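(Deposited chain)
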Amino acid sequence: MSISKSRAVQTRWNIAVLLLGWLFNASLTFAEEWKSAAPMPKGAEEVYGIAAGGKLYVFGGLGLGWKPMGMVMEYDPDTDRWTRKRDMPRGLHHVALAEVKGRIYMFGGFTLPEKGEAMWVPVNQAWEYDPKTDVWRSVAPLPAARGSANAIHVNGRIHVIGGAAFPAGLKEEWVHPSRIIAVGTHEVYDLASNSWTKAADMPTPRNHAAGGAVDNRIYIIGGRIGSVFIPNAFNIDLVEEYDPATDQWRLRAPMPTQRSATAWGVYGGNIYVAGGEIRHRDIWGTYTAVEAFDPRSNSWKRHSPMPMPRHGLAGDFIGSHFHLVSGSVQSGTNAPGLVTNTDRHDVLVVDGK
C-alpha cells in the first residue's frame, strides 16, 4: 500500500473512532425547543453572563486592540427587552462572576497597561454589583492576580479557581498573551468577613473552563491548558470535582467534547455547557454543542445543538430557559479589524416548560 493510501485509511479510521466515541460517551436528546429572544443591543465577543433576580446580566465585551468595552446589559424575559446599565467600574475582560442572594460578584480579569503597547495585564480587583440599585462597590481583592478563572458560590463562600497569570519571575515590561499561563490557584472569599483563605489547588491548571456547584460540591469542566491564548493552548475534556468539606479533588466523567470559552449554567442538578472554541493550524472554529453533566450519576447527556456556533458568549438559566447571548462565530481572523461578533440571543427550553 502506498504512503498516501495508508494515510487516507488512517484518516478515515481516526474519524470513525471519533464518531463512535461521541456516540458512546454521551446519550443523545434532541427533542427540545430553541427560541429566539431579543438580540443584545451591542454584540461582542468575550461577554460573560449570570442570572440574578429573574433577569440575565451580561458583562464585558472586548473591542479592537484588546480594548475592554466594560458594558453591563440587563435582559428582562418578561418584557423581552434589554436595558443598558452602569458600566463596569474598570475596563476588564475575562472576569469571573458569581451570584449570591441577588448580588453579583466579579473577580480578577485582564486590562490594558497604563502606558505602552497593548497587552493583557492580570488584575486582582474584586467587586460587588447590586442590580437593583445599579451600584458597584469594591471588596477585598484577590490574593493572586489572574484572569479567566471560575467563581462558584457554596454556603456563603465564593471559590475562585484556576485561570491564567503571568509566569513567576517574569521581568519583561511587555509580553504577548500567549505567554500568560494556566494556573490551578484556588482561593476562597468569605462574604461575611470580606476576607480570603487558601484552599487546595485544582490538580489540572486551566483557564476558559466551565463550572458549577451541585449538592455543595464544585465542578470545573473542560477549558484549556498551557496558555490563555487559544493558538498556544490545548482544549481538554477533564472534569474535576472539589468537596469543600474535605478540601479534596477527584476526577469525574470527562466532557464528551473537548472545548474552551463556553457558556454554562446549572438547572435541575445538571451543569449545561454550550458553545466553545477550537483552534488548529487550518481550523479556527466554534461549537454548537450543548452537553449536560449529571454529577449524581456521573454521566453526560447531549442536548439539541445551538442554532449558531460561537465562543466567548454569555449564558445562564432563568428558570428552565438556557439563555445564550452574543459571542463570536469563529476563533479569530487573519485580517485586523474584521469583526465576527453576533448579537444573537438563543434560548433552549429544557423540560418543555
